[in-house]
Amino acid sequence: IRAGSRAYNSGVLREDARFKRNMRHAWFHHVDRGVYFYSQAINVEEAREEAEFVIKQVNGAALKLPVFLDIEDTGTKGKGRADKLSKEQRTAIALAFAEVIREKGYEPGVYANRWYLNDRLDAAALESAGIRIWLAEYTTASAPKYRGAWDYWQYSQTGRVPGIPGAVDLDRTSSATDKNNDLSRRQVVFFLLLPAPEVAFELFRDRHVEGVRRFLRRHLILPADPVFIHVTAAAGKNP
Fold it and tell me: To which H or E segment does residue 52 belong?
């Protein structure tokens, strides 16, 4: 789920407008949650700033999947502020981001395509640092051409999922990742929009308020003092 991005020209950090909604709905539908941030950091200081920004957005929520730094070309013919960084600079940025994410109790990862992993990042250094690799390589083949290690493989950008209008990105986990994360061998879908039924809220008993507030803040990404406490569903209906 995209947490946010840094503008490729101005360098301004921006929260994804649907992040909190998507986090809540993914939890509601029992979808394993992971987070990514589109980076345009040009030094390790900005990489740490991006990591802290993501941590603030996540707000202590439980994540099954890693927190990824999305490193890719802007497609602006070199006009992006990070497009002309060296391989060493990009790798240092990824390592700095990962360090902060791990310090905060989350598993770090890097999202990049085959070209970047081969030529613009030191993938071996990332792997040695225990950073999960999310490979982007679109193909109908049963395996990617990328020969390095990967944990997640984004193999399509034209997938279809019932309940989601339009195309979605489709991803698979490696067998090793499935084993390490106690995940079943299944397809993992990463997307920006999630459907959800209407949910009614009602105030619960005062003596339970603080405990429920803590639960909602951790798992649903709600404001520090959510007004609505108890979730109910109409009888006889499956949400």
Answer: helix 44-58
- What does each C-alpha distance from 8 to 62, 72, 91 come to in angstroms? 30, 11, 18
Would you say how long the chain is, in residues?
239
pTM of this structure? 0.76
DSSP labels for 128-195?
HTT-EEEEE---SSSS-S--S--SEEEEEEEE--TT--S-EEEEEE-HHHHHHTT--S-EEEE-S---
Report the candidate in 110, 168, 119, 172 with the shortest Cα–Cα distance to residue 141: 172
The token pair at 87 is 């391989």
| Per-residue pLDDT in tens (0 to 9) along the chain, 239 residues | 999 999 999 999 999 999 999 999 999 989 999 999 999 999 999 999 999 999 999 999 999 999 999 999 999 999 999 999 999 999 999 999 999 999 999 999 999 999 999 999 999 999 999 999 999 999 999 999 999 999 999 999 999 988 889 999 999 998 766 555 544 333 444 444 333 333 333 333 333 445 555 555 555 554 444 343 333 333 333 33
Going 227 to 221 to 3 to 47, the CA torsion angle's sign is positive
Q: Which amino acid is at 111?
A: Y
Q: What's the CA gap between 228 and 62, in Å, rounded?
A: 20
Q: How far apart are CA 157 and CA 21, in angstroms?
A: 22
